[in-house]
Design goal:
- The structure is a single chain.
- By secondary structure, the chain is of the alpha/beta class.
- It is 31% helix and 22% strand.
- Strands 1, 2, 3, 4, 5, 15, 16, 17 and 18 form a nine-stranded mixed beta sheet that branches.
- The structure holds zinc ion.
- Zinc ion binds next to loops.
Length: 449
Amino acid sequence: MMHITIKGGTLVTATEERRTDLVIEGGRVAHVGDAEPSGEVVDASGLLVLPGMVDTHVHLMDPGPTEREDFPAGTRAAAVRGVTTIVEHTHAHPVRTVDDLREKSSYLEGRSNVDFGLAAHVWPETIPHIGELVSGGITFFKIFTCDTHGVSGLDPALLTEALTRIGLTGGRALIHNEDQSLTAAAERRLREEQRVDPGLLREWRSREAEVVAVATSAAAVLGSNAVVTFAHVSNQGVLDVIDAFRSLGADIAAEACPQYFALEEDELDELGALRKFTPPARIRNEQDRSAMWRAVTDGRFAFFSTDHAPSTIAQKEEGGFWEAPFGLPGLDTTLPFLIDASLSGRLAMTDVVRLYATEPAAWYRLPKGRLEVGADADLVLVDPNATWDVVDSDIFSKAGWSPYSGRRFRGGIVASYLRGTEIAAAGEPSDSRIGRFISPARTAEPTYW
Ligand SMILES: [Zn+2]
């Protein structure tokens, strides 16, 4: 079996940084500590050695509307930018039964450059299938509180029923929180007024609609004993509600996404559909931005993910603003964004590992996100002295553009390894397609840091 010595790098875990070597044998970490060079030797001096990132909120549309994205393209982006595990779900082609899960996981054999878990959607009529899907190896259930992306929202009664069943069967849920009655009423009014300007998004998908749904969902979590993630928490008001329910005992993880830190509310007016995602960007100034980062370092966010949901510029701009697809590409840029934030003093490099590798893996009980003896040798080499000037032509997602184009990120991703195999180096994927379907551990309790 393949034997590799990663020599002279600085190993970064969720809790510490230290200069050490790392030996890989048969796709697993065999030794961490000083080692004589043997087998293939990778000179990592001056580089950081991180576990491969684990992105648990990704939409690759495959099978589905693959004109927007597919597994080969999306996981090229992941591999090149240091993400070695994703958890995927596609709204337009949802997994609702165990047969759907089997069909999708076998279809994806040979289509992924990184390891992948899959999530299922919950419709009112699929609530009885929740237990079978947990046993079948689904990572979590996606639930909407409002009709979005063609998926029906669950009202509080159905939400409580679904969460109770998820709690009983040991599953996990990811909830998209926007209140159905508020978004529907706002949509009716805006259409009556014949509004077509991008600014309508702020009124349609308002802060109030997010807070009302978060409070309702949090109450349902509290009553159900489920372990739940609240997706893409967009601002501090939402965190305040989550923290209040957490202090009462609700097991809720607040998910952070780069767009709520990097993009500002007013960009919508100028950039239109290229800033159409929901909830929309909420920060208005540097004070709001610093407050979001403070919430990260204070531990109020559990982990980062991208909510990668790309469309090309042509797809975004075809038709009017109402018709434009929601979502942003993100797999190409999330780890570079976090490394840049760390090198700029917003958070420690150990926090990057904790928030984008170790903690999401632990929360969803996936056997990933750690570089310890016996673990899968999924790792990323990072050069803290490099820089990346983001341009659209660097983007591997089918989107072919990035909301961060024109920005300079400090730090550079040198190479990524999946189970000991190099899957990308110097900004190019090897397109190995060796990614495997992975399931959560059924018995182990999550580890909290
Ligand atoms: Zn999403």
